[in-house]
Amino acid sequence: MKTLFLLLLTGLLLAFQPAATSYQVSPATSRLTWTGYAETGTWAPTGTLLLRRGRFDYDGTRLRNGRFEFDMASITHTNAQLQQHLRDVDFFDVERFPTAVFSLREVANGVAVGELTLKGITRPLQFPVSLTRRPGGSLALRGTATLDRTRFGVNYNSSSFFQNLGSYAIRNDFQLEFELLATPGQP
C-alpha cells in the first residue's frame, strides 16, 4: 500500500511539472568570437564564427536537449592568409568537416554539459553559461567555452606534438565566446 501511494504521489508530481518549450536560436542576432593564443608572447588572434542553427528546450527552470550547428567555413580573421590556413587541413579541414555540432544535455548550476563534435571527433564538453530572460519571452545565453584543439585532432604547431617550435608554438586551448538569442517556436 505504501509503495502504491509513493507511485501515485510521484506520478502526480511529474504531471504538474511545467512543460518544456522549444526555443530556436537566431543565427542573425547571435555572436560567436574565437581567440587563439601563442605559446610565448602576447599574440592572441581573434575572429568570428557563424551559427547555422540552434535549438533547445526550456521549462522555466532547466535548459536541456539542445543542438547547435556551427558553419566552420565561416571562420574569419582579418588576415586572409591566416583565415585560409584555419580552414585548411592543418586546422579545421572545413572542406571535409563543414559543420561542428554541440549537443547540449542540460545546463545545471550555470554549467552547460554536452558533447562537441569537431572534425568528426566527439568529446564531452562543459563550460559556464548564463541565461537571461528578455522582454517578449526571448532568452539570451552567454558564456565562454575553453577548448583543447588537440582533443579534436588539430595538432598544428602544438608543443605537445612537435619539438623546438620556439615562437611558432600555438597553445592547445582556445576560447569561444558566445552570445545567443533564442525565441520560443518550432523549427
UniProtKB/TrEMBL annotation:
Signal peptide bounds: 1-21
Domain of life: Bacteria
UniProt keywords, alphabetically: Signal
Occurrences of domain Lipid/polyisoprenoid-binding YceI-like (ranges): 22-183
InterPro entries, alphabetized: Lipid/polyisoprenoid-bd_YceI (IPR007372), TTHA0802/YceI-like_sf (IPR036761)
PANTHER family, alphabetized: PROTEIN YCEI (PTHR34406:SF1)
Entry protein name: Lipid/polyisoprenoid-binding YceI-like domain-containing protein
Organism: Hymenobacter algoricola
